[in-house]
Design brief:
Largest sheet: 3 strands, mixed
Shape: flat
Number of strands: 3
Strand content: 15-25%
Structural class: alpha+beta
Distance between the termini: 59 Å
Order of helices and strands: HEEEHH
Number of domains: 1
Radius of gyration: 18 Å
């Protein structure tokens, strides 16, 4: 018996998409799950958002109460992932881009 696969199957059900943790992918995924709208056995309230983190991937499982906020979260994650990627490239063009982005943000924010 492969306990890693079984454990991933269990947590995949909590996330709301069977087998998601046994799939090979890196990065961030957002999954709508009706499970986030229910109070799970043994708990006194529902989990509106469940975030599962591993070293190379993050999964956001969300329900109806989080629909309005999830687009904001997606935009923030996209921005952070993009900047992190650019920082890791460590080239002159990347540094120029980051400086311009930082200067523009300061100008826009006063």
């Amino acid at each position: 018996m492969n306990f890693s696969i079984k454990t991933n199957e269990y947590y995949s059900k909590w996330i709301g998409l069977d087998g998601i943790l046994n799939e090979e992918f890196k990065g961030v995924k957002f999954i709508y799950s009706s499970e986030r709208n229910k109070i799970q056995n043994g708990y006194i309230q529902q989990f509106d958002i469940l975030i599962y983190y591993q070293s190379d991937r993050i999964i956001f499982s969300y329900g109806d109460k989080s629909l309005e906020q999830i687009d904001k979260v997606k935009q923030q994650i996209k921005r952070l992932v993009t900047l992190d990627y650019l920082k890791k490239k460590n080239t002159c063009n990347t540094m120029t881009f980051l400086l311009k982005t930082t200067q523009n943000a300061k100008i826009q924010n006063g």
